[in-house]
Amino acid sequence: MSTLVLDNGAYFAKIGYSHEKVSVIPNCQFRSKTSRLKTFTANQLDEIKDPSGLFYILPFQKGYLVNWDVQRKVWDHLFGKEMFKVDFADTNIVITEPYFNFSSIQESMNEILFEDYQFQSVLRVNAGSLSAHRYFHENNSELCCIVVDSGFSSTHIVPYCRGRKMKEGICRINVGGKLLTNHLKEIISYRQLHVMDETYVINQVKEDVCYVSQDFYKDMEISQLKGEDNTVVTEYVLPDFSSIKKGFCKPREEMNFTGKYKTGEQVLRLTNERFAVPEMLFHPSDIGIQEMGIPEALVHSINNMPEEMQPHFYKNIVLTGGSALFPGYRDRVYKEVRALAPVEYEVSVVLPLNPVCYPWEGGKLLAENPDFEELVVTREDYEENGHYVCEEKFDV
Questions:
Q1: Domain spans in the chain, listed from the N-terminal domain onward
Q2: pLDDT < 70 regions, the chain
Q3: Contacting residues for 296 by C-beta, under 8 A, at least 6 apart
Q4: Taking a C-beta distance cutoff of 8 angstroms, is the pair 349, 334 a contact?
Q5: Fold match, 2-126+357-393 / 177-278
Q6: Which end of the chain is more exposed for a tag (fewer CB within 10 A), N or C?
Q7: What's the predicted TM-score (pTM) here?
Q8: Which Gene3D superfamilies does the UniProt entry name for this protein (predicted)?
Q9: What is the pLDDT of residues 345-375, one digit of tens each?
Q10: N- to C-terminal Cα separation, the chain
C-alpha cells in the first residue's frame, strides 16, 4: 500500500508519495486580471500568461483552514488524474494541520479524507512534529530540539523532547511571509509605484532582493549614502510578461546611479526596504505588532521548560519554513539567541538544505517507519468509532 505525504501549508502544499520526490504546489486558486471569469487551481498558475494583478483565493486565514470549497478544489486537482492519480482504495495519507486546531476543522477533515475520498488510513500531524522526527532521525543521540517554523501566516516555536511536543513551550508570532509581502507592497506603493494589486510580482521581488541584516543601524547608514558608496541599493527590473517574463536584479556594474533608464523598462530602486522588511521577524513592534521577535520568543519558550532540559534545547534549534531562506537569517538568529542565552550553554542553530520541504521529508521517513501502522487511524476504525478514535490517537 502506498502512502501520500501532504504538508498542507497555508500558501504551498508540499506533496508526494513516500517513495518519490516532493512537489511544491500553490495551495490556492487564482483569478487573473485578463480572464476574470476563469479560476486557476494550484499549479495551473503556470498557464496564466500575464500574472500581473493576480487575485488569490486562499483556503487558509490566519493559519487555519476556513474555506473548504477552495481546499476541496485544490485537493481534487492534486489527487486527480493530471497530478498524482491517487488510487484511494490502496493509499494511506499523512497530512499536516496547524497547532491547536479547532475540533470542528478536524472533524471536517476526517469526514472529507475518510468519507469523500475514502483513504485507507489517515495520520493527522503538525508540520513541526514531522520536522522534529526528521531531525531526531539524523541526530539520534539528541533528546531535545526546538523547531522554528516560519510560514505564510505566522511563525511557530515548538520544543520537542524524545519526539513529543511540549505544549507549555509553544509560542506563536503573528508574522509570516504574507505580512512581509504586504508590508513591502505598502512601502513601494508609498515611495515609488502603486503595486498594491501586484501580490504575485512583489512576492517575487521579496524573495529576490530581501535579506536579514546583521547590523541594522550600520546598514541603515550605508543605505543613505550617495552613488557607488551605497552598497545596499539595488535595481530590480519588473516583468512586463511579454519580453520580460520574470523580474530580475540588475548586475551592479549595469546599475544607473543617475536615475535615467532604458525606455520600456520599469525599474524599482530598492534600498533600506531590502532589510527593513525581514526585520519584522525580529522586531514585530517596528510596525506596531506588540509581540516578541523570533530570538526573544525562542528564549521565552526554552525558559518555560524544566531547567535540566534547557541546555539541550539551546544546542538544537532547527529553522524551517519559507522565511528561513532569507540570506543572513540563520546567522542573525544565532547571534541574538547567543546574546540572550546563559553564558555556560552552547548555542547551535541548524538551517536545513531545504527548510520548506523539511517537514515533508520527516513525513516520508515516518511513512517508512515500521511502527507507522500503529500511528494511523484506519477507515475501518473510523467507520466503527467515528471522530472519537481520531481524537484519541492524534496528538495535535
A1: 2-126+357-393, 129-175+290-350, 177-278
A2: 257-263, 396
A3: 336, 340
A4: yes
A5: no
A6: N
A7: 0.94
A8: 3.30.420.40, Actin, Chain A, domain 2, Actin, Chain A, domain 4
A9: 999 999 999 999 999 999 999 999 999 999 9
A10: 25
